[in-house]
C-alpha cells in the first residue's frame, strides 16, 4: 500500500496534467467551461456521458477534441431511424476458402474504439439504441453467441436532441442509467459567441494536441478510485440519493407527491466517482459537500421520472432536485 505522501504527490501530478488537458480543450471549445469539466469528469471516472442540446452548439466538436487531447482512438456513429444493431456492433459473414471450406468471420462494427461518439442517439429506434447496453456496461459485445471484448479504455459520449424535436425516440430507462451523468449544453453568452466567431471564421483555427494516452488515462482512473472521500461526503451522497426515492422513509412530501420512480444504487456510485473527479480538476486532494451539490442535478436528473400529475402541474425534475439538495447540504456541510 502506498504511503499517504506518495498518494498526495500522485494526485498533485495528475492535477497538473489535467490542467494542461483543460487548457488544450479550451483552444477549440469556447464558452462551455462547465460542459468541458463535466465531460472530463466522466472520462476520469471511467464512465459514459449524455450531452443534450440543440444542434450546432459544439457537442460533436467537443467529443472530437477530447479524443485528440486524451489520446484515444475515436469512432463515430451517426444514429438514424434506419440504423440496425449490426451497424453498431458488427456482424458475422460467411467466407469460402480456396479449398472450398466455409467459415464465419466476425467483422467488427464502429463500436470497437476507445471513445465512441454516438451522434443524435435518440434518432434511432429503441431496438438499435439497446445494442449499446451490453457494450456500455460490460465493455464487450456478443454476436452469434460469442463475446468480443472492446478496447480499453472504452467510453461513450452520446449527443441527444431535445425530445420535442421531430423524429426522436426517448431512450430506455435501462440505457439512461448506464450514463454516468447528463450534461445540458446551452447557448453561449454574447461575449463567448463573439470569441467563437473570431476563432472559427479566420484563415487559421486552433488545433488541439495530445496530453494523455490510453494507458495514462487508465492509470488516472485507477488513481481516482484511491482518492479519499470523507465520511460526511459519503453520508451526504446516501442522504441525497435516498431522499429522491418516493418510497423511501426519508423522502419529503413533495418528492412522494411528484416522483414516479427515483435513482438506484448506480446514482450513488456515480456521485462517489464524480465528486473525486471534480476535486481533481479543481486541484484539490479530496472532495467536499460542494462537489455533491454541484453534481446532484447532472447525476440524478436522467435517473428519475415525474408522475403524471406533476407533469400536468408543470413541475420540473431540476427544481425538485435543487429542493432536495437545499434541505440536505447545510447539515452535512456543518459536519464536514
TrEMBL record:
Q: Where is the ChlI/MoxR AAA lid domain?
A: 256-312
Q: Which InterPro entries match?
A: ATPase_AAA-3 (IPR011703), CbbQ/NirQ/NorQ/GpvN (IPR050764), ChlI/MoxR_AAA_lid (IPR041628), P-loop_NTPase (IPR027417)
Q: Which CDD domains match?
A: AAA
The ATPase AAA-3 domain sits at 48-181
PANTHER family attached here?
Answer: MAGNESIUM-CHELATASE SUBUNIT CHLD, MOXR FAMILY PROTEIN
The molecule here is called ATPase AAA
Which species expresses this protein natively?
Sinisalibacter aestuarii
